[in-house]
Design goal:
Number of helices: 7
CATH architecture: Sandwich
Structural class: alpha+beta
Largest sheet: 5 strands, antiparallel
CATH topology: Immunoglobulin-like
Number of domains: 1
Order of helices and strands: HEEEEEEEEEEHHHEEEHEHHE
CATH class: Mainly Beta
Radius of gyration: 20 Å
Helix content: 10-25%
Distance between the termini: 19 Å
């Protein structure tokens, strides 16, 4: 079945037959980690688990069980903090390795200038004390004033500071707190901060902490961008944490950042990019041809746009918004460029 050649009518029928709203990704239930991935046409799906101290070392490879449209497996919660991928056997017997689109954190990633590398999700429990406390709610009403929004790139705010003046590494969530970001915004009478995309980005090496000055780097080896090359929508960018090798660190530290913003009466807006990804192999590795509008006449980048009219793509978007609200108390999302879809009957 080649989904890349199908029209809108086909995908409407496909969604009616296969789409659902059951929990996907990982869920901690009692003493187990329940893993579920949507892939209705695969021949087989395996989960591959990697050591938490050595993300290249495989510690488990096990076939998952088919349940209707999904593949599921229960693992002991002793795998908390370990990393994982899926190996998918497609109907034509081709094989791909895939990142969980619902991964809540990730292993450190370095694309090395190659668009074929596959990231690894991390087993993390957002309800655990390991993930830190949820931020306090923002007890402030803005209806009586127009919002004054400060757009901010996490790395840029502290990247030019003398590193000897900071206890935290420049360009991180913790450095923003140390630099008194929210005191600064209050003095300027800003009501909100809008963060440029915070999610995992494909072309940033999480473990390269070098911040280059003007003229010092070339092309992708500068290890810098504003986040508009999404890799995974549910995982925060590891570079912004104090320890990218600890999958809980980025969660704890962003929660602290939001908590401080709310304590200071500053609303938090998160910028997201849902019209494209860095490379379409990210989702095509799961179910080729479904997640992207392959027949589109206009591309936002060099690849076809994300097919946000399809139910299981919409589901990713809505689930991310729900996660921001329920887990991080971010009340606002800036949706960047939903402009490439005009519904048709064919």
């Amino acid at each position: 079945m080649n989904l890349q050649l199908q029209n809108n009518a086909f995908f409407k029928e496909f969604d009616q037959k296969y789409a659902h709203d059951k929990p996907l990704g990982i869920n901690y239930i009692d003493h187990l980690i329940h893993v579920r991935i949507w892939q209705p046409v695969a021949k087989e799906v395996f989960i591959i688990v990697f050591d938490k101290d050595n993300p290249e070392q495989i510690v488990l490879k096990q076939k998952m069980s088919k349940q209707d449209t999904d593949w599921v497996i229960d693992l002991p919660n002793s795998f908390d903090g370990y990393y994982y991928q899926f190996k998918i056997i497609h109907p034509d017997l081709s094989e791909t390795f895939a990142l969980d689109p619902y991964a809540l954190s990730m292993a450190p990633f370095d694309w090395e200038g190659k668009e074929t590398k596959v990231g690894k999700g991390a087993f993390v429990d957002l309800g655990s004390s390991k993930a830190g406390k949820k931020p306090r709610k923002l007890n402030k009403v803005f209806q009586s004033v127009d919002p004054l929004i400060y757009e901010l790139h996490v790395r840029d705010f502290t990247s030019l500071k003398d590193p000897s003046t900071l206890q935290n590494r420049r360009g991180t969530f913790n450095a923003l707190l140390e630099a008194n970001l929210f005191d600064y915004l209050k003095k300027l009478n800003f009501t909100h901060v809008q963060f440029l995309p915070l999610q995992s980005t494909y072309t940033v090496n999480d473990l390269d902490f070098q911040i280059y000055g003007k003229g010092e780097g070339k092309k992708w080896i500068t290890n810098y961008n504003w986040g508009y090359d999404p890799h995974n929508y549910f995982s925060l960018n590891g570079f912004y944490s104090s320890n990218p090798s600890n999958p809980y660190a980025r969660i704890i530290e962003f929660r602290k950042l939001v908590d401080e913003a709310h304590q200071q009466g500053i609303g938090v807006i998160v910028d997201v990019v849902y019209n494209h990804m860095m490379t379409n192999t990210i989702f095509n590795n799961i179910l080729p041809g479904y997640y992207y509008r392959e027949q589109a006449k206009i591309f936002p980048v060099s690849y076809p746009p994300l097919a946000d009219e399809r139910k299981m793509v919409k589901r990713i978007i809505f689930r991310f918004a729900k996660k921001l609200f329920n887990q991080l108390w971010c009340w606002w999302i800036s949706f960047w460029s939903f402009m490439f879809y005009a519904p048709r009957d064919n």
